[in-house]
Amino acid sequence: MAFTGSRILVVDDEREIADLIEVYLKNENYSVFKFYSAKEAVGCIDETELDLAILDVMLPDGNGFDICRRIREKYTFPVIMLTAKEEETDKITGLTLGADDYITKPFRPLELVARVKAQLRRYKKYNTASAKDDSVITHSGLVIDVSTHECLLDEKPLSLTPTEFSILRILCEQKGNVVSSEQLFHEMWGDEYFSKSNNTVTVHIRHLREKMHDSVDNPRYIKTIWGVGYKIEK
Fold first, then answer.
1. pLDDT at residue 225 tops 60
2. Can you say whether the dihedral through the CA atoms of 36, 88, 162, 215 is positive or negative?
3. Handedness of CA 191, 127, 147, 102 (dihedral sign)
4. Residue 26 structural domain
5. Last residue of a domain, one of 78, 97, 127
6. pLDDT tens across 105-135, in order?
7. Closest among 179, 177, 168 to 211, alpha carbons compared
8. Which of 79, 113, 203, 226 could connect to 99 by a Cys-Cys bridge, CB 3.0–4.6 Å?
9. Residue 135 has what pLDDT?
10. Domains identified in the chain, total number
């Protein structure tokens, strides 16, 4: 499912790249809001109901990190960061601020389109879930409401990015079973464009633990099964 008509923000000061992204996304029947500066993009975020954002890290009047941070103050739609080749720090920073994925330049346009589709599929699936008895998952002080995309920990709201929320939901649904990194890749993004050495899941798990004040050595929730994956004990 391509979720045609979805509204996508594209921000990149390299006009050739921004224009190329726009062409490929429009070919998939997405509505594209394209900007070459941070200031213009921020105005669009405040005025437009968006479904996804693609943000370049380096901009002439700011950076994609600031835009991502601003988005996460109000919105839960997916964010994909465009980073310079081999800049691991940029990738980690983006994920820390709430980005859901990143792609390094130069990239293949079809790869970016595949990432966009995967993020929209996940986002739309879990934000349009109908209210039903099993839409609320509970476990040891943790309450996950799939239909409202809200999470409570010991009766206090837990602020999670869409990716963090989905990973925690998957682990809770598979409570007692080990979920491999490959399974999480497939569930979250589709693993066609991810190598097994990709550390995206590891970073998101670390952020989840930090927000939940969970310990790696003596976990209350997320347990690492070394060389296999992760699990939440029953």
1. yes
2. negative
3. positive
4. 7-127
5. 127
6. 889 999 999 989 988 987 877 665 444 445 8
7. 168
8. 79
9. 80
10. 2
